[in-house]
Amino acid sequence: MSNVTYKYIKQNSDVQTYINHADKALESMGYTEHSGPHAAITADAAYDILKTLDYSERECELAQIAGYMHDIGNCVNRAHHAQTGAIMALNLLDKLAMPAEEIAVIISAIGNHDEKSATPVNPIAAAVILADKMDVRRSRVRHPDGTWDIHDRVNYACVQSRYYFSDDKDELFLDLVIDKKISSIMEYFEIFLQRMSLCRRSAQALGINFRIVINNSKIV
Q1: What angle do CA 97, 107, 163 make, to 5 degrees?
Q2: pTM > 0.85: yes or no
């Protein structure tokens, strides 16, 4: 087992530099927040999903590491950022002498998290996909003055977001409260349908079902 821990990765100055530069690049293009908070939320949710499903502590931590690093490729270009980020992570983790077996599952997860080309190729990838796509929240919007595109509007309309498992752990719920004065539920599905379909496939790869609840109504 490697000595490379999530705590170390989170404090690593090189990783943090790439995350910060990636977020600045996305900000210049008008994208929502992809900085430290999104990285940490994705990391912790990926860990929690696998922990709830009784995966080993190290598998959970590898998902946490992959979740934290998943968007670093955006500092190069938004296009193909998942694959670029995987190569960047390979170089970073190899220099830290992490075993190839662990690097392989991390870079597979990073390289497969974007809905345009993603496949839940292993449990860690599935957990990172779910954790990333479930991060819908008002605080990701950079311009609360109302000069938004549809992505800003939908995120800002989400006044409450949480996920939870059913008691038997067979279902994972994404539970949202959307202010329909700001954005319609139809708009949510207009931009997130592809992502939610990927979440459904990722959940199935983990042997569970993915459900969406919006304003106390089960949608899927």
Answers
A1: 120
A2: yes
